[in-house]
Amino acid sequence: MPQDEAQSFYASMLNAMAGLQDDLDANEAPQAAKDLLAEALEECRSDYRVRFSVK
Fold first, then answer.
1. Residues of 19-53 as b/e, b for ≥16 C-beta within 10 angstroms?
2. What are the tens digits of pLDDT across the range 17-28?
3. How far is Cα 53 from Cα 55, in angstroms, rounded to an integer?
């Protein structure tokens, strides 16, 4: 997969995860689910910044 395509795919995945996080907050999901998603999202964001040299 070319670098630009990979970065676009990864960015789309991060946006989807952020949307899911918003849905969990809006629907009063259990705190454990919110915490788990928040942790996974932060790890993915960190990985994205490293992989694609984004601040």
1. eebeebeeeeeeeeeeeebeeebeeeeeebeeeee
2. 999 999 999 998
3. 7
The pair of structure tokens assigned to 3 is 């670098």
* Distance between CA atoms of residues 29 and 50, nearest Å: 31
Dist CA 26 CA 43 (whole Å): 22
pTM of the predicted model, to two decimals? 0.82
Kindly indicate the confidence band of residue 3, based on its pLDDT and cuts at 50, 70 and 90. confident
